[in-house]
Automatic annotation (TrEMBL):
MF (Gene Ontology): metal ion binding
Name assigned to this protein: Transporter
One Pfam family linked to the record: SNF
Location(s), subcellular: Membrane
GO biological process: amino acid transport; sodium ion transmembrane transport
Length: 642
């Protein structure tokens, strides 16, 4: 999908932004459906404006000005904070491990879509008894296909089971696609870029138009926009909304910094931040609308089947289900519920809307069930999973770029062996990803998604904001941005970075830790006997694994700080023994004359106008600062922070 991009090429962020964040934006629909979309989306917009956009702008500006990946950016701001970049790489690797498993699931479902009828359209027959398989009859054909045919899942995380050979093959294919694309670089050809950016929107609009023609679509839209303002009093809803802002914009992963480091120095990154955030939100609204239209049709179909069962009872005036509306049936049920057996329910549309909208259930259970009801269902199923595959690979490419770019920027030997590094990273990802292809693998996917990426990600962004706002200095950072943009961003960013964003993220981190400590980590397991999902607590060894993953991702920050301090102390001691007084060569900002700087730039051959090496900082600031050459390997770095 991608053609070769050399190290010196600078693809503009505009050519990548639609694809890089489109898949993350669509994931908001699950939380919106679970909490009542209207109120949740208002909360999401509020947090997007006061936290998401400022932090997104900060990462774009840092990468574009310093011309490095995540490791180089934070090392440049302060050598004491170089560990932030390594933590970002580890979090990216965590996400890549389990995210590619979801791509493997999409490949499996897309491969099974080329048959009619779809294999999840009806329950299979037990050849021994010639009856419907009990597990499928007690649940649904889509749930049975997902949990038994696709995952062949165990009853808990403690029952590991053997490897799933089909999913292992799909995971190998997914990593092979990623490796081949990343070997060629991140710059796509124009036709492929336009296709991969526009195709998901085309599919979403097709599903929206088709969905609006279905019975129950209006009920789904009403449910979407009905605001449940009481959820604002739930601290966990705020935590989930803030976490979704982080994931939707890709904050803390390093991929934003990696992409922006290839931008031209004077690219308008402020415009990019506003535009990407707006596109992300509008995409979320469109995807949410499609989801609720489809879920409304699904809920109406189930409710009509439910009340058709009830209308067969003799105390209902009519035995024709089409005559009795769902509202009339529910009114009758409220009056006679005490006389009915457990098989007769109130056929609530809202309860049906809430089913199958969390986690992987949205794509692989709820949507597959609806597509099985469509005419020409294989076509719709193939189209849907092709869109998921496109979105998943786009996000995966950005995640891998957040790993490879910082490593190649800071380890020149790796930069000379890009292909070897890429293939080795993908091979390691596949080997470690085998954890997710065993029969209990879905439970480990949930573990990584809920705990191993979220908490370390928040910790990384807290340190990023602290380093810019309090170590480097917001005024100094705004001066650098003013040089790039030729105008100074509003001063409101200074206070957002220093106080609002930082306090919001510390609160998010505290809420996540308190929930983890007092409520205890849990996961949803599929019980084969009961043919239903149930909530279980993680065993002791799984809790230890969660804690180990969090510590592993967060530890580079304190380790990097201690390492920098020890190097500084050793350097001071060595200079003291030599008599001291010698000037240390390091990255240092010194006053210079702008005319002298301009003359020196004009004498530099071979450089294009407006282009600067990736390893250089801004050539001149508003206070006329110039960066002297860095000699890291020979002498010691010192903190350049204010």
């Amino acid at each position: 999908m991608f053609k070769v991009m050399t190290k010196n090429e600078k693809p503009p962020l505009d050519s990548l932004e639609d694809r890089a964040w489109l898949g993350e934006g669509c994931s908001q629909t699950q939380l919106a459906a679970a909490h009542g979309s209207g109120a949740f989306m208002l909360l999401y917009v509020f947090l997007l404006l006061i936290v998401g956009v400022p932090l997104f702008f900060m990462e774009l500006a840092a990468g574009q000005s310093i011309r490095q990946g995540s490791i180089g950016v934070w090392k440049h701001i302060s050598p004491n904070l170089a560990g932030i970049g390594y933590s970002s790489c580890i979090v990216c690797f965590y996400v890549a491990l389990y995210y590619n498993v979801i791509i493997a699931w999409s490949l499996f479902y897309m491969g099974n879509s080329f048959q009619y009828p779809l294999p999840w359209e009806r329950c299979p027959t037990d050849v021994a008894t010639n009856d419907t398989v009990k597990e499928c009859a007690s649940s649904s054909p889509t749930s049975y296909f997902w949990f038994r045919k696709a995952l062949d899942i165990t009853n808990s995380i403690q029952e590991s089971g053997e490897f799933n050979p089909v999913m292992t093959g799909c995971l190998l294919a997914a990593w092979a696609i990623v490796a081949l694309a990343m070997i060629k670089g991140i710059k796509s050809s124009a036709k492929v870029m336009y296709f991969s950016s526009v195709f998901p929107y085309v599919v979403l609009f097709i599903f929206l138009i088709r969905g609006l023609m279905l019975d129950g679509a209006i009920e789904g839209i009403k449910y979407m926009f009905y605001p449940k303002l009481e959820i604002w009093g739930n601290l966990q809803v705020w935590r989930q909304a803030a976490t979704q802002v982080f994931f939707a914009l890709g904050l803390g992963y390093g991929s934003v910094i990696a992409y922006s480091s290839y931008n031209p120095v004077h690219n308008n990154c402020h415009r990019d931040a506003l535009m990407v955030s707006c596109i992300n939100f509008m995409t979320s609204v469109l995807a949410t609308l499609v989801v609720f239209v489809v879920l409304g049709f699904r809920a109406k179909t189930i409710a009509l089947g439910c009340h058709a069962l009830g209308t067969g009872w003799p105390w209902i005036n009519s035995t024709d289900p089409s005559v009795v509306s769902v509202a009339e049936y529910r009114q009758w049920y409220a009056q006679h519920s005490s006389d009915l057996g457990p098989t007769i329910t109130d056929c609530s549309l809202e309860e049906e809307m809430n089913k199958g909208v969390e986690g992987t259930g949205l794509a692989f259970i709820a949507f597959t069930e609806v597509m099985a009801l469509f005419p020409a269902s294989p076509f719709w199923s193939t189209l849907f999973f092709l869109m998921l595959l496109n979105l998943g690979l786009s996000t995966m490419f950005g995640t891998m770029q957040g790993i490879l770019t910082p490593l190649m920027d800071n380890f020149k030997l790796l930069a000379h062996y890009r292909t070897v590094l890429t293939v080795s990273s993908c091979l390691l990802g596949f080997i470690l990803g085998l954890l997710f292809t065993q029969r209990s693998g879905n439970y480990f996917v949930a573990m990584f998604d809920d705990y191993s990426a979220t908490l370390p990600l928040v910790i990384v962004v807290v340190f990023e904001t602290t380093s810019v706002a309090w170590v480097y200095g917001t005024d100094r950072f705004l001066d650098d941005i003013e040089v790039m943009l030729k105008w100074r961003p509003p001063v409101v960013y200074k206070y957002l970075w220093k106080y609002v964003c930082l306090l919001a993220m510390v609160g998010l981190l505290a809420a996540s830790l308190l929930r983890m400590v007092f409520k205890g980590p849990t996961y949803t397991a599929w019980n084969q006997t009961a043919a239903s999902e149930m909530t279980l607590e993680y065993p002791g060894w799984a809790l230890a694994m969660i804690i180990m993953l969090i510590i592993l991702a967060s530890s580079p920050v304190p380790i990097g700080y201690l390492h920098a301090k020890l190097r500084q102390r050793g350097s001071l001691d060595s200079h003291g023994e030599q008599g001291g007084g010698q000037e240390m060569h390091r990255e240092l900002y010194t006053k210079c004359n702008s005319t002298e700087l301009l003359d020196s730039r004009q004498q530099t051959p071979g450089e294009e106008e407006g282009a600067y090496p990736r390893t250089a900082f801004l050539p001149i600031g508003s206070e006329q600062y110039r960066l002297l050459p860095q000699q890291e390997e020979e002498e010691e770095e010192e903190d350049t922070g204010v």
